[in-house]
Specification:
heterodimer; A: about 240 residues; mainly alpha; B: about 90 residues; 2 helices
């Protein structure tokens, strides 16, 4: 039986969705194992009985192994997505946000296209460029990060003394901006698989904060180096 | 924590473990089916990304049995301890 490329792509997309769902299910299993371990650990407090110790160890190992299983599936999906977009560009989403906790690449592009600033145009170009060239996740991340640093440098050259001094002042705040806190296990995997989309969202937020801060600075005209909220952060820490 | 509290907590732990095992079995079953389809569809490809997919799915497949055995071991040990408490 010979299938057309279209058929193969359609079937591989179904595979992609199944694997994605399996990742989410596996993470639920991991949460159960974690809960079990917490119960066993509570019981084990104050006793050296080998059986309860063994139960703690086994539930912890189960949790770790399920997490590894989910990671392997997620990474397989990542490579499968790249392959699908190689044989049929645009055929597979570059990011599967199963629970909607993180934005899809398509949504980011749509948001960028709805905006009119130079920053929006920049992000739109980066996302589309990545899509066109089927860059690896790492390459895309690097391209977006490096390009954005340049953009921010140009952008910040106006305000004067703050332009070069903010780079090393508040790395902690930057970490918060560049890596949004995600406490949902699914979102954790989504971040791992779809670092492009999540990273772009973080960068997008950072730009918004910087724009707000610049506006404030322009109004204040005091050339302060450290805004109290520190939300703009340091671009020098972004590439870790 | 008195003995009855210990037993209740143990039972909760055992329940959570069994639930986790069942959920993982579902994930593995679904992923195994999807993996078979993927390997069939991609069997003649030598693409670099396809090779990665094969390798990763193979590794994942190898994790299924050991993972299930850890869930079982946790249940068995906790059951034994529960029994030992009378």
């Amino acid at each position: 039986m010979t299938a057309s490329v279209g058929d193969v792509v359609a079937q591989l997309r179904a595979v992609l969705e199944s694997l994605d769902a399996a990742v989410v299910t596996a993470l639920r299993a991991q949460a159960d194992a974690d809960q079990a371990k917490a119960h066993f650990t509570e019981v084990a407090t104050g006793t050296d009985h080998s059986k309860i110790r063994a139960a703690v160890t086994a539930s912890q190992t189960a949790s770790e192994k399920v997490a590894r299983y989910a990671r392997l599936l997620a990474k397989a999906n990542e490579s499968l997505t790249i392959y699908l977009n190689t044989i049929a560009p645009g055929s597979a989403p570059t990011h599967q946000a199963s629970d909607g906790t993180a934005p899809s690449g398509e949504r980011l592009v749509a948001e960028a296209e709805n905006a009119s600033s130079g920053v929006a145009a920049f992000l739109r170009r980066q996302v589309k460029k990545a899509d066109d060239t089927q860059d690896t996740l790492k390459q895309v991340e690097q391209a977006v990060t490096t390009g954005l640093k340049e953009l921010l440098r140009e952008y910040k050259e106006g305000p004067g003394p703050t332009a070069n001094t903010t780079a090393t002042t508040s790395p902690g705040a930057d970490t918060q901006v560049a890596r949004p806190t995600v406490d949902h296990p699914v979102a954790g995997v989504v971040m791992a698989v779809g670092a492009v989309a999540v990273g772009t969202k973080g960068l997008w937020n950072m730009i918004k904060k910087r724009r707000e801060r610049k506006h404030d600075e322009d109004q204040a005209r005091d050339g302060r180096v450290h805004p109290d909220d520190g939300e703009g952060g340091s671009r020098s820490q972004r590439s870790d | 924590m008195n003995v009855s509290e210990v037993k209740a907590t143990l039972r909760e732990g055992i329940h959570a473990t069994k639930q986790g095992q069942e959920t993982f079995e579902q994930a593995a079953s679904s992923a195994t089916d999807a993996t078979s389809r993927a390997l069939q569809l991609l069997h003649d490809s030598r693409n670099e990304d396809v090779e990665k997919v094969r390798k990763l799915l193979d590794e994942a497949k190898d994790e299924v049995s050991p993972t299930l055995s850890r869930f079982s071991a946790a249940v068995d040990s906790a059951d034994d301890y529960l029994t030992s408490l009378g």
